[in-house]
Amino acid sequence: MTEMVYGAVPAQRGEPILPKWWRTVDKWSLSCVLILSVIGLLLGLAASPPLAARNGFQPFHYVERQAAFGAMAMLAMLLTSMMSPTLVRRLSVLGFIGAFVALALLPFLGTDFGKGAVRWYSLGFASLQPSEFMKPVFIVVSAWLLASSQEINGPPGKLWSMGLCTVIVGMLVMQPDFGQASLVLFGWGVMYFVAGAPLLLLMGMAGVVVLGGTIAYSSSEHFARRIDGFLNPELDPTTQLGYATNAIREGGLFGVGVGEGQVKWSLPDAHTDFIIAVAAEEYGLILVMIIIALYASVVVRSLLRLMRERDPFIRLAGTGLACIFGVQALINMGVAVRLLPAKGMTLPFVSYGGSSLIAAGVSLGMLLALTRTRPQGEIGDILRGRG
Predict the structure, then answer these.
(1) Between residues 378 and 264, the one the model is more confident about
(2) DSSP secondary structure code for residue 305 in this structure
């Protein structure tokens, strides 16, 4: 408990890997992620049986699959969190190449599962969504390029990272997957800002985003329909947003009771995109606030630890990973309460999913690896002339 309150102890030379990892990892963030996973299983028990019944499966078919995927995600997170920043960077480069090829082949080998967007590979026993794995590895690779551009005689990393971001966002928009595209663009923009981007350039990028949104609204019926539905002051109670809004209203402070919620019988995506509506209806605002606090704790603690980090690559990569983790949760919950247009984005570690759960485990494992305490002076020592 003392280490959790006052911080981890720097690792000693020659220590075995597990004691070294336990001494240096952020135990509060690790605990928050584990609690979110448990909450996800708890909500899965409530949200997935109606879907299983409609599809002719056993009542807890999707819960069992979520438990299996969750176990793989936890294993991926723990193994990744034991890596050094150098190993995280090297494996991310390889992962980026694989994810890029997978994205490029989606129009030819992918499927849409009847949802109108070709985002998945059908593996028979499961599906694979490459964009979920692209997010963390792209963030790490971009951070490496941005950090290398700060070195004397370094490569034009900022320009290269901007080019990669443009290509990846373009590939995601073509699926179309505007939610993941906006998340990738946001993560890169945050890192570019932290790396010292000129304000005028950031304003220009914002203008390009607005122009791109205008073009998408004019050319994509799918995109336009979601924007129109969001802007319409009258909410159709028979739509997914209508069901979710009513469920949140009915839940109140303490909820209607475990298993008593009705929204899971009406929403086809109650176990994925609108899982927070199930939480609000059955458990009330109390559980929703706990979930928000858990996400905020991971993001804030990670950013505070990164503020003390000297290595620019670690600072940039950690900041990007923490921000896309928090913003993805914010977007999912914002859609449910109609603060944002529908995006089709899962709630990390809580929503049902294979690719999203495992990719979230890898992403948080990278973040935990980058925020581990290392035997170095803090960045404040440099500012005070002691570095």
Answers:
(1) 264
(2) H
Q: Which two tokens stand for residue 380?
A: 């404040």
Smallest CA-to-CA distance from 157 within 206, 183, 191, 204 is with: 191
For the stretch 295-316, pLDDT in tens is: 999 999 999 999 988 899 999 9
What 8-state DSSP symbol labels residue 120? Answer: B
Could you report the per-residue pLDDT of 312-339, keeping only the tens digit for each? Answer: 999 999 999 999 999 999 999 998 888 8
For tokens 């290509």, what's the residue? Answer: 167
Tell me how far apart the alpha carbons of residues 101 and 110 are, in angstroms, rounded to a whole number: 12
Distance CA 115, CA 263 (A): 21
Q: CA-to-CA distance for 340 and 231, rounded, in angstroms?
A: 10
State the greatest distance between any 2 C-alpha atoms of the chain, in Å, as a whole number.
68
- Say how far apart CA 55 and CA 53 lie, in whole Å: 5
Which residues share a beta bridge with 122? 127
Give the residues across from 120 on adjacent strands. 111
DSSP secondary structure letters along 49-99? HHHHHHTT--TTHHHHHHHHHHHHHHHHHHHHHTS-HHHHHHHHHHHHHHH
> Is residue 376 very low, low, confident or very high in pLDDT (cuts 50, 70, 90)?
low
What is the enclosing helix (H) or strand (E) of 326? Answer: helix 312-336
**Cβ-based neighbours of 236, under 8 Å, separated by 6 or more:** 229, 242
What is the length of the chain? 387
* Mean pLDDT to the nearest integer, 270-279: 87
Q: Report in angstroms the alpha-carbon separations of 290 from 251, 297, 344.
A: 15, 10, 23
**Boundaries of every domain in the chain:** 14-376
